[in-house]
Amino acid sequence: MKNRIESDIDEEVFSLIQSTGFKMLCGEPYLLRNLVKLGYYQVDIVKEEIGYMLGKIKEDGGFGCISSNKKINDPKKPHKSCARLTVEYLLLVAELHLLWIECECGSALVHYFTKRNIFYRTDNRETPMVDVMLETFYPSDPIKVGVQNIVYALRVLGCPRESEAMQAGYEVLSRHRLDNGRYLLTASKSVPAFKAGKVGEENKWITLYAYMAQ
User: Fold this and answer.
1) If we measure between CA atoms, which residue out of 56, 110, 58 comes closest to residue 79?
2) What does the angle CA 185 – CA 94 – CA 99 come to, to the nearest 5 degrees?
3) What confidence tens digit (pLDDT) does each residue in 160-212 have?
4) How far apart are the first and last CA of the chain?
5) Coil, strand, or helix at residue 84?
6) Which of 117, 122, 191, 193 could form a disulfide with 168 if both were Cys (CB 3.0 to 4.6 A apart)?
7) CB contact at 8 A, 145 and 137
8) Residue range 49-75, pLDDT digits in tens
């Protein structure tokens, strides 16, 4: 039998799923990634939702904006993928890979980032798709993921260290490396989910992900 703590956790998790239907604005892929991380992938409703959502990958290898505002996302017009949302799916697919679960969309998703040297617009390799991607933002939230988590996820998915894209990732990471080998936290939420450390100081979590990325 499950102990009381496990039962309480299950109750909270499935209450969240029931109340939201997984649709947490832009946060669904991040929610799914966290459910996988917590061991819920084998639950049918979770596995089915992951398969359904990953099946929505676009031709460019990314995932589209979910906004219903026609000024932002008119369904009658072609739109490029949303880089912020696509980063979340990258983290989800990397988490599945750690469980030896391979996704059909995996290679296309990885290519979405590697063809951009991870962070940059395809029409300008000096302009980031999203500025926060070049920061060590932590803890991650549905629209802000730092360089350490992105490079780590790509490494998990098999991107060669010597590739142009990964070298670009390591170059950005190195900007936040201190002389003692540790890494700085450069940005965080105003009210983080937990005390991750002080902005502007060396940080154990950033350092951990930076080294795992290598």
Assistant:
1) 58
2) 125
3) 999 999 999 999 999 999 999 999 999 998 877 778 889 999 999 999 999 99
4) 41
5) helix
6) 117
7) yes
8) 999 999 999 999 999 877 666 666 666
pTM exceeds 0.85 for this model: yes
Give CA–CA dist 151/212, Å, rounded. 9
Of 125, 183, 178, whose CA–CA distance to 149 is shortest?
183
In this structure, the number of other CB atoms found within 10 A of the CB of residue 48 comes to: 10
Helices (H), ranges, the chain: 4-20, 28-37, 44-54, 70-73, 83-98, 106-114, 147-156, 164-174, 204-212
CA 167 to chain CA mean position, Å? 19
Based on the number of CB atoms within 10 Å of its own CB, is 12 exposed (0-12), middle (13-18) or buried (19 or more)?
Answer: exposed
> How far is residue 48's CA from residue 207's CA, in Å, rounded to a whole number?
35
- Backbone φ and ψ for 142, nearest 5 degrees, come out as -60, -20
- Distance separating alpha carbons of residues 201 and 72, to the nearest angstrom: 37
Which class for 45: exposed (0-12), middle (13-18), buried (19 or more C-beta within 10 A)? middle
Inter-CA distances, 163 with 111, 117, 149, 195, Å? 12, 9, 18, 35
Phi, psi of 45 (to 5 degrees): -65, -35
* 152 contacts 174 by C-beta, under 8 angstroms: no
